[in-house]
Design brief:
Elements (H helix, E strand, L loop, with lengths): L2 E5 L4 H16 L3 E5 L25 H11 L49 H14 L6 H4 L13 H5 L5 H14 L4 H23 L20 H9 L5 H13 L4 H14 L4 H11 L5 H12 L13 H8 L4 H6 L19 H4 L78
Parallel strand pairs: 1-2
Helix pairs in contact: 6-7, 7-12, 9-10, 11-12
Bound molecules: flavin-adenine dinucleotide.
């Protein structure tokens, strides 16, 4: 007898796929088994109700985390069987189709990527071993996690988590083992702290359903968003004239990867500096990210746009200060914005203020765009050279001798990176009834 086992999804389109498969299986008399498995803490183990009728997941992360840490336990990982039973007679394993058989173009590898790994479970387990046991990078995670260049500033677990190749419980259990056998410190805890953010967004989506996709977000906030497509294109293509934004957006387009620091900044720039509809940004991320996860993506965009669970509603990132703090020598910008490479040091973050000599052949408005906006708060950071005061520490290099930015990778990027998004930005169904903003 053949059974179909699947991991329960949370959001609208994913549930529709589930329904389609369940109906198909019913018609063919195939038994379907549903399991809850994508979160670190099982839905049934957290000290909150998560039914669609009564759901008391708190509206702030800290409340959620404290309660879960105090009153819930992570379930043990299941041990893997040494061998699987053979397939039933008449069932053949088949061939995994190649990209070209699927009609998808092979993407060109970019050797600058911070995510040089292939996909799949073995590679995910290999990365877990590497980040903990081989390089001991986990011991410095809290200090390095805001980095921008190379493979070891953060765990890079997210693509495997998003595709179900690595389970959060497996990561948890390995970190606990590492803490028992090697070191237990703030950094080892902080990886688990971040995994809890992932859980939180999943439970928030379970609570608010489709509202996470609405223009007004889960808290029904009516804000005046614009849908100026020329501005959006400049943002998406990395041609805003603001080097820190452009470097991150070009990295995303070329590799399907962007650091957490980058994601927060480009999201803030889109919504707070350009005033663009946050859903344009969320859809772009959905179509480009290797690690796209509906709940983490839309939850974080709600948060960045001030329509979600951020108690600090008016938080706005300062692109110049952020660039100087986290890319104090301008190396990250130099890596991705080729046309600015000749500009030395931190000045690369505000080229439009520089004189001919410092511009070293760059022509603003010709070889590199003029900035789309220059908010007044940026001005106090021009001319401040924070070259050696970077807020982040460099992650130790892997013992294997690999280095992130120099090693070319086996692409794990999905076909051409142009998967269609939720496709609802122009669609009235997306927002709740009410005046269009
Ligand atoms: C606008 C925006 C969109 C995002 N979209 C996604 C997305 O589609 N998929 C996705 O997995 N993450 C998303 N994130 C969260 C975060 O940026 C990534 O999880 C992280 O950068 C992945 O790198 P890492 O695995 O090295 O993370 P690490 O820093 O090593 O963290 C370990 C793990 O914790 C989880 N995590 C860390 N930060 C967050 C966070 N803010 N929210 C939820 N989980 C988190 C991830 O599972 C991550 O793999 C988004 C963040 C922002 C600001």
């Amino acid at each position: 007898m053949v059974h179909v086992v699947y991991q329960k999804e949370i959001t609208y389109e994913e549930l529709a796929v589930e329904d389609g498969i369940i109906n198909f299986c019913k018609a063919k008399n195939i038994k379907v088994i549903e399991i809850w498995g994508s979160t670190l803490y099982h839905k049934k183990d957290i000290p909150f109700k998560t039914d669609s009728s009564i759901n008391d997941i708190p509206n702030t992360y800290t409340q959620f985390r404290k309660a879960v840490e105090a009153r819930a336990k992570v379930r043990q990982v299941l041990s893997m069987p040494d061998q699987l039973k053979p397939l039933p007679p008449g069932v053949f394993i088949g061939e995994i189709p190649t990209l070209s058989e699927l009609g998808v173009e092979q993407v060109k590898k970019d050797c600058r990527t911070a995510f040089p790994f292939p996909g799949g479970e073995s590679s995910g387990l290999g990365r877990l071993k590497q980040y903990l046991w081989e390089t001991r990078c986990v011991e410095k995670y809290k200090e390095t996690r805001n980095g921008l260049v190379g493979e070891n500033y953060s765990t890079k677990f997210s693509p495997w988590l998003a595709h179900g190749c690595l389970s959060p419980r497996m990561i948890f259990s390995e970190i606990k083992r590492y803490e028992r056998m090697e070191v237990s410190n703030k950094s080892t805890y902080w990886v688990i702290f971040e995994l809890l953010w992932r859980d939180y967004f999943k439970f928030v989506c379970l609570k608010y359903g489709d509202r996470v996709f609405y223009k007004t977000g889960i808290f029904n906030k009516k804000l005046p968003w614009s849908q100026d497509m020329k501005k959006f294109q400049a943002w998406a293509e990395g041609k805003t004239g603001v080097p820190f934004v452009d470097a991150n957006m070009r990295e995303l387009k070329k590799t399907g990867w962007m650091s957490n620091r980058g994601r927060q900044n480009v999201a803030s720039f889109l919504v707070k500096d350009l005033g663009l509809d946050w859903r344009l940004g969320a859809e772009w991320f959905e179509s480009m990210l290797l690690d796209h996860d509906v709940c983490s993506n839309y939850g974080n965009w709600n948060y960045a746009a001030g329509v979600g669970n951020d108690p600090r509603q008016n938080r706005k990132f300062n692109m110049i200060k952020q660039g100087m703090d986290y890319d104090g020598k301008g190396e990250f910008v130099r890596l991705w914005v080729e046309e600015l490479r000749a500009i030395k040091g931190a000045k690369i973050h505000y080229p439009w203020t520089l004189g001919t000599h410092e511009l070293a052949g760059v022509h603003i408005g010709e070889t590199y765009p003029r900035p789309m906006v220059v908010p007044p708060e940026w001005k106090r950071h021009f001319g401040k050279n924070k070259k050696n005061k970077s807020k982040i520490r460099t992650a130790p290099r892997p013992r294997t001798g690999q280095r992130g930015i120099q090693s070319c990778y086996q692409s794990a990027k999905k076909g051409g990176g142009k998967r269609s998004g939720r496709g609802r930005v122009q669609d009235n169904r997306w927002g709740p009834p009410g005046p269009s903003t």
